[in-house]
Amino acid sequence: xxxxxxxxxxxxxxxxxxxxxxxxxxxxxxxxxxxxxxxxxxxxxxxxxxxxxxxxxxxxxxxxxxxxxxxxxxxxxxxxxxxxxxxxxxxxxxxxxxxxxxxxxxxx
Length: 108
Prior knowledge:
Blueprint: H1 3-20, H2 24-40, E1 43-44, E2 50-51, H3 59-66, H4 101-104
Antiparallel strand pairs: 1-2
């Protein structure tokens, strides 16, 4: 976003916050509460639905368990999984079978 658009958006947001009586402290508190709620999630599905493990189990999790999925499948780990490594590129330039019948044979 260029600087003028950014400044314009900030001015608009400040105007709207003044209009509704929202102070920057209120906004900061709301954002902090949201981040705490996200951290408190203990189970999450692929669509982003989450549950903290307290209270009644949500319907999405009940359905998944009744369909045979384990609850551990949805459990969030404290250590996120490492990012997948890029696949190694194969150098076919020295392929001894290039151009032979073996290389052209269709697999069935």
